[in-house]
Amino acid sequence: QNLLEGIRQHQTNLRVFVGATAIGYYGYSESMVFTEDSPAGEGFVSELCVKWENEEQKIRQFVHDVKLAQIRIGVVFGKGGGFLKEVVPVFQKNLGAPLGSGEQKLSWIDLEDLVEILALSLENPKFHGVINAVAPEAKSNRQWSKLLANELKVSLLPAAPASALKLAFGEMSELLLKGSEVKPLRLEGLGFQWKHPSIESSFQKVLGKPALGEVELVFEQWVPHKREGVFPFFESESNLEVITPPWLKFKVLKKSTEQIQKGTLIDYELRLRGLPLHWRTEITDWKQNERFVDEQVRGPYDKWHHVHEFETLGVGTLLRDRVTYKVPIGVLGRWVAGPFVKNDVEKIFSYRQKVIYQKFGAPQGD
Fold first, then answer.
1. Which CATH superfamily is domain 2-207 in?
2. 161-170 tens-digit pLDDT
3. Is pLDDT above 80 for 22?
4. Where in the chain is the domain with CATH 3.40.50.720?
5. pLDDT tens string 32-62
6. What is the CATH number of domain 215-360?
7. Given this model, what pLDDT does residue 333 score?
8. SS3 for 51?
9. C-alpha pair distances (Å), 365 with each of 163, 227, 306, 315, 360
């Protein structure tokens, strides 16, 4: 309501409005299959989704020609959060089990596919109206529990009876014991291509583990520019100093080739927690306007592997940094320094994203 009121007051020239609710709109059923044309269900979640979507539709009262897309989102699978963040630790302790009958369906979507759907809803005029953001095939609780246990290489306990769950969780047990099968008919009709159409594919991507002692961090940022307009900034080693926090006193000393390419060696100096450090990295992979990889040759880590990816997404570019590192001194190093190193790396990339936003945050004619 506040957002719509702000749009009304400012009389903005709004062309597209993308709203998001959930597939809880349809309610729960073990036998019915829901599509975008199915009516709303009953219960708190359904009523909340209906009220939310009704408010979104009011935008047409004062922006008559706006394109409205209403995305009903399934259970999202992604690294570091959401559904799997809560479920995986239970399975890793060998406490995972089908719940109740195990037949309740889970309609899900991989985070990468969801981001693509939202981006297309902003730029593609065909992506309007109600769209179910789910993968092509829902899985029963029993099916996905078995697949998750296989991926984690753990055992699965016998099914937990519904009565025990109701006793333990009360009304909250409904969220565990009920499900719904939702079909993405609109997406299929629009020819949408899922990157992860199967739950196995999503599990493998999300749950892929680094080697013992290694830490993997992923940072993503979207900018409203084409790859060709963004990549040149990152292929200049001098800009590393621009996007690195000043407290690191980071300075590029030299590079082995005039133009950065596969095989280029770059030497730096910096100060980390007051300690002077010298660092040499090698560019081990280079694809113009797509990706490049730098790996530590000499420096403070046992391993540093940084993948820079530039992915076309909608009318702009998704910048993705995949960092895999390993602190020295084995288990002792991980216990003592591990939390500090992780915090430092996250602070560095947080600063980096702020600088990138300041430079590329506004659309330009690139």
1. NAD(P)-binding Rossmann-like Domain (3.40.50.720)
2. 888 777 766 7
3. yes
4. 2-207
5. 999 999 999 998 899 999 999 999 998 888 8
6. 3.30.530.20
7. 62
8. helix
9. 61, 13, 30, 11, 12
